[in-house]
Amino acid sequence: MEIKSRDLGRYKLEGALGEGADLEVFAATDTQTGASVVVKRPHPTLLSRGRHRSVERRMADTIAIKERLGLALPHVAPLLAHTAQEPHADYFGDGTDERYTVVVEARAAGVPLVGSAIDGIKRHPIGLPQNLFALHPVKAHPERGAFTIAGEVLAVAEVFHSQGVVLLDLRPQNVYFDPATAAITVIDVGNITLEREATGRHPALDMHDFYLELFKWYVPSGPPPQEARAYAEPYGMDSVTRFTSDLDALSRVFAMNFTDDMGSRAMPILEKIRSRLYATVGEFRLDLEEMMRGLSDEYLAYSGTASEQAWQEAARLMTAPHWSQFLFSPEDMAPYSEF
Ligand SMILES: Nc1ncnc2c1ncn2[C@@H]1O[C@H](COP(=O)(O)OP(=O)(O)O)[C@@H](O)[C@H]1O
Ligand SMILES: [Mg+2]
User: Fold this and answer.
1) Does the predicted model carry a pTM greater than 0.90?
2) How far apart are CA 124 and CA 107, in angstroms?
3) Greatest CA separation found in the chain?
4) Has residue 179 got a pLDDT over 90?
5) Which residues have beta carbons under 5 A from ligand 2 (an ion)?
């Protein structure tokens, strides 16, 4: 729904929530419904230099695709309203007279799978949710089970692919997880690209690039940690994705860490990604689901071991005050407790 800047007053700003390279994000409350929302605009450092044109283009693409798909888009923070490109000095009270788009979305429940770089520098355990819930779910959610996250992230990319585009960069910083319900919410679908074939100038780009990213961030490449400390560190966050060398690195760690079932399930998938052999997303999904089912079975064996103790100890870190900046409270961990 397109609204006028003056109608943004309905969304009462409550302070900065986060920022990325592209956007500045505020927490806000919808005064008509009481709902928690977020208000996004191009980052002020871009606005102040008039350098927000490419961000505007990405915002427009995202708005168009979200409006077209509406409720058919699962696991993505719903778009509630957006403005045209116009000045918003009154709403933000900052005297910026640049014209730009403002987007209002539902605020995601739960915690980011990996927290912000700034929180990492402050030594908060920003990788905890990624390790506890995505990579090493030694304790499964009683109703949803373990290893559900990769499949849900894939479902998001699958819907975008049905619209003829490849959605990249669904990194754990862009995915929230609500431990109470074990549901994800993707908060950033700004990286939409068109498929292209390989030419002399550049390599191919298609869903296989996405599959590689899914492997990098959402599939464990070794057994669960034996020490709680190891859960704090985010995994797979290094630099940009480089197709061939990333696949080489992944194949190496899988070969090194798994001599058993997991290795024999993962390696053929990695090779099919490398050769870009998946004709449909459904074909990849079948392989992914079989691998994740195998992992779920393997993880049952950690019940009652030192690995489970390490998981429990790490899970207790989720009660720290740090996590209350999100729509999360320690009671949301109840499904994973002993009782
Ligand atoms: N819907 C949302 N719910 C909760 N937090 C959000 C939401 N959207 C964005 N954020 C916060 O704002 C930060 C930046 O938003 P994002 O859309 O990822 O911007 P960028 O495109 O610049 O990366 C996120 O990392 C997250 O912490
Ligand atoms: Mg982001």
Assistant:
1) yes
2) 22
3) 62
4) yes
5) 20, 174, 188
